[in-house]
C-alpha cells in the first residue's frame, strides 16, 4: 500500500499481514505516517494505491453498508481522542455501539437500551473511569479523555483494535494498566491489536511483532523477541 | 556593501500612482458623485431641515403618555414580541434540516449543497418587508402574515450560518464515530451538531434580535405588530403618539439585545 497527500508521499510499499490474536506494535519517528496508516486501514481516507483486506473483506472495494458492518467489528482509538466535548462520558462511550445499533437510541446514554448502558459502564470500569460516567467530556484531564476514547473503542467488543498512541497522555502506572488491558484482550478474547507507541519498552514487551516505519518505507517487521531496544532506536536516526 | 546603503534612502517616500490607478481613483469619485446626485442630495435641503426638524420635535414632545394610550401600545408591543419569538423559533427549527442539506461534505452532495445555498441566498436577498407583503396577500392582513415573514427571514439567515457553523466544527469526533461504523446521519447527530451547538445558540440569539427589529416595522404593511401605530400616528399628524411608539421600539430593541447578550455569555460564555 502507498499513501500520498496530493503530491507529497507519506509512505510507499507498506505491506504486512496481521494474524488473529496478535499484538503488533507500530513504531516510527514523528510524521512517518503511523496515524495515516491506521486511518487508511479503517478506510477513513483512501490509500493512494494498493489495497487493505480486513476480516476477509477488501475495504476499498466495499460498499458503504459493508464498510460500516466491517468498522463495527473494529475499534479505533485516535491519537487525538476525539471525544464529543459537550456530551457526557457515558454518552461518548455509548456512541461506540452506533455501528452495531444505528439510530436515535444510541445518540445519548439517556435514550440507550439497558444492555447498552451496562456495556458502556463495564467498558468504563475496565479503564478505571466508572466514577466519571456523568462528567462532561470536555471537563476531563488529557489522560482521562484518552481512557474514555479507549472505552469507546472496546465497548462494541471488536475483533480488531487499532490504538494510536494509547498511552501518550497517561501517567506510567495508567499506561501499564491500559497495556495490560490490551494484553488481556489479545490473550483471552483473541482480539488482534495494532498499537503505535513511542515507548520502545512497551513496543517490545506488549507487541508480539514490531513494525517500524522510516523514510517512507516499512523498515522493520520482526518478532519482538528477536529485537533489542537498540534495533528500534536505529529507526529514529 | 556600505556604499550601496545610501541609495536605499533615495527611494521616494510616496509612490507615484500608475496611470491605471489614477484612472481608478477618478472613476471612483465620479461614481460617488453620481450616486449622491441620484439620491437627490441637496445642500439647501440639509440647510433648511433643522428648523423643520425642530418644528416636528416641538410638536412630538412631550411623547403621549396617557395611560390608555400606553396600555394600547403596550399590548401592541406584546403582540410584536409574540410575532418575533414565534417566527424566530419556527425559523430556527426549520433551519436545522435546511442547514444539514446546505453544509458541504455532511450528508448531501455538492449539487444539493449548491442548490440549497442558492435558494437561501435568494431568501436573504428579498427584504423582510417584502416577505410580509407577500404573506399578507397569501394569508391576509394580521400577525400571522408577519410571523411567516419572520420565520422565512430566519430560515434564510440561520440556514446559511448553521451550515457554516457545522462546516467549521472539529472533524475529529465525526471521524472517530465514522470509525465505529456509524451511519452519516448518526455521526451528524452525535458529533457534528453537539460540536456546533455553541455557534447555533449564538446564531439563534442574533436571529431573535433581528426578528424583534423586523417585527416592529411589519405593521407598516399590515402584517401585525406595533408598526401600524407608527403609521397611523404619522398619517393623523399625531406626532406625540408616534414619538411614544419610536421610544418604545428603541427601548425594547435595546433590552432584547442586552438580554440576548446576557444569555449568550450564560449559555456558551465559559467555554467560548
Ligand atoms: N490531512 C493531511 N493532509 C496533508 N498532509 C497530512 C495530513 N495528515 C497528515 N499529513 C502529513 O502526513 C505525514 C504523516 O502524518 P501522521 O500523522 O500519519 O504521522 P505520525 O507517524 O502519526 O506522527 P506522530 O508520531 O507525530 O503521531 C506528516 O508529514 C503529516 O504532516
Ligand atoms: Mg500519529
UniProtKB/TrEMBL annotation, chain A:
Matches recorded under InterPro entries: AAA+_ATPase, ABC_transporter-like_ATP-bd, ABC_transporter-like_CS, ABC_transpr_LolD-like, P-loop_NTPase
- Molecular function in Gene Ontology: ATP binding; ATP hydrolysis activity; transmembrane transporter activity
Highest rank taxon of the organism: Bacteria
Write down the species.
Antarctobacter heliothermus
Transport among the record's keywords? no
Instruction: Cite the entry's keywords alphabetically.
Output: ATP-binding, Nucleotide-binding
Q: Does the keyword Nucleus apply?
A: no
Q: Which GO terms describe its cellular component?
A: plasma membrane
Q: What is this protein called?
A: Phosphonate transport system ATP-binding protein
SUPFAM superfamilies linked to this entry: P-loop containing nucleoside triphosphate hydrolases
List each copy of the ABC transporter domain by range: 2-237
Automatic annotation (TrEMBL), chain B:
Where does it mainly reside?
membrane
The portions of this protein that span the membrane are 20-43, 83-108, 129-152, 242-263
UniProt keyword terms in alphabetical order? Cell membrane, Membrane, Transmembrane, Transmembrane helix, Transport
UniProt subcellular location: Cell membrane
Asked whether the keyword Secreted is assigned, the reply is: no
GO cellular component entries: plasma membrane
Q: How does it sit in the membrane?
A: Multi-pass membrane protein
Report domain ABC transmembrane type-1 positions: 77-260
One Gene Ontology molecular-function label: ABC-type phosphonate transporter activity
- The superkingdom of the source organism is Bacteria
* PANTHER family for the chain: ABC TRANSPORT SYSTEM PERMEASE PROTEIN P69 (PTHR30043:SF1), PHOSPHONATES TRANSPORT SYSTEM PERMEASE PROTEIN (PTHR30043)
| Family the entry assigns | Belongs to the binding-protein-dependent transport system permease family.
What is the name listed in the Swiss-Prot or TrEMBL entry for this protein?
A: Phosphonate transport system permease protein
This chain's source organism reads Antarctobacter heliothermus
Amino acid at each position: 500500500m502507498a499513501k500520498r497527500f496530493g503530491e507529497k508521499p507519506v509512505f510507499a510499499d507498506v505491506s504486512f499481514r496481521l494474524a488473529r490474536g496478535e499484538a503488533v506494535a507500530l513504531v516510527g519517528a514523528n510524521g512517518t505516517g503511523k496515524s495515516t496508516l491506521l486511518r487508511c486501514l479503517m478506510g477513513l481516507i483512501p490509500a493512494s494505491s494498493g489495497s487493505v483486506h480486513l476480516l476477509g473483506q477488501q475495504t476499498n472495494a466495499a460498499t458503504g453498508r459493508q464498510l460500516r458492518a466491517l468498522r463495527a467489528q473494529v475499534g479505533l482509538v485516535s491519537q487525538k481522542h476525539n471525544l464529543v466535548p459537550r456530551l457526557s462520558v457515558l454518552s461518548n462511550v455509548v456512541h461506540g455501539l452506533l455501528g452495531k445499533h444505528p439510530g436515535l437510541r444510541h445518540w445519548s446514554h439517556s435514550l440507550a437500551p439497558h444492555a447498552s448502558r451496562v456495556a458502556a459502564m463495564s467498558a468504563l470500569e475496565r479503564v478505571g473511569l466508572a466514577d466519571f460516567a456523568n462528567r462532561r467530556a470536555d471537563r476531563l484531564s488529557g489522560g482521562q479523555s484518552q481512557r474514555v476514547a479507549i472505552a469507546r473503542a472496546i465497548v462494541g467488543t471488536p475483533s480488531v483494535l487499532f490504538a494510536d498512541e494509547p498511552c501518550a497522555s497517561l501517567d506510567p502506572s495508567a499506561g501499564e494498566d491500559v497495556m495490560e488491558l490490551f494484553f488481556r484482550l489479545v490473550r483471552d478474547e483473541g482480539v488482534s491489536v495494532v498499537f503505535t507507541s513511542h515507548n520502545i519498552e512497551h513496543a517490545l514487551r506488549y507487541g508480539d511483532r514490531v513494525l517500524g516505519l522510516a523514510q517512507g518505507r516499512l523498515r522493520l517487521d520482526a518478532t519482538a523477541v528477536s529485537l533489542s531496544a537498540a534495533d528500534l532506536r536505529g529507526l529514529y536516526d | 556593501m556600505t556604499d550601496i546603503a545610501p541609495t536605499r534612502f533615495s527611494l521616494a517616500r510616496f509612490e507615484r500612482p500608475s496611470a491605471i490607478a489614477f484612472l481608478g481613483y477618478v472613476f471612483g469619485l465620479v461614481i460617488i458623485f453620481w450616486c449622491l446626485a441620484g439620491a437627490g442630495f441637496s445642500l439647501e435641503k440639509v440647510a433648511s431641515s433643522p428648523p423643520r426638524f425642530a418644528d416636528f420635535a416641538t410638536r412630538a414632545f412631550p411623547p403621549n403618555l396617557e395611560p390608555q394610550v400606553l396600555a394600547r401600545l403596550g399590548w401592541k408591543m406584546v403582540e410584536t414580541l409574540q410575532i418575533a419569538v414565534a417566527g424566530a423559533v419556527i425559523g430556527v427549527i426549520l433551519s436545522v434540516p435546511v442547514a444539514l442539506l446546505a453544509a458541504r461534505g455532511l450528508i448531501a452532495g455538492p449539487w444539493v449543497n449548491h442548490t440549497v445555498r442558492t435558494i437561501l441566498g435568494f431568501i436573504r436577498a428579498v427584504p423582510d418587508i417584502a416577505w410580509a407583503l407577500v404573506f399578507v396577500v397569501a394569508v391576509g392582513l394580521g400577525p400571522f402574515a408577519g410571523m411567516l415573514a419572520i420565520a422565512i427571514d430566519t430560515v434564510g439567515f440561520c440556514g446559511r450560518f448553521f451550515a457554516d457553523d457545522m462546516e467549521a466544527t472539529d472533524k475529529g469526533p465525526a471521524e472517530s464515530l465514522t470509525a465505529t461504523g456509524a451511519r452519516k446521519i448518526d455521526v451528524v447527530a452525535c458529533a457534528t451538531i453537539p460540536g456546533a451547538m455553541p455557534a447555533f445558540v449564538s446564531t439563534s440569539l442574533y436571529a431573535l434580535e433581528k426578528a424583534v427589529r423586523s417585527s416592529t416595522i411589519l405593521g407598516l404593511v399590515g402584517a401585525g405588530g406595533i408598526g401600524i401605530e407608527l403609521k397611523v400616528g404619522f398619517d393623523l399628524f399625531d406626532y406625540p403618539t408616534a414619538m411614544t411608539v419610536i421610544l418604545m421600539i428603541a427601548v425594547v430593541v435595546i433590552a432584547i439585545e442586552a438580554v440576548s447578550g446576557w444569555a449568550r455569555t450564560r449559555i456558551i460564555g465559559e467555554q467560548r
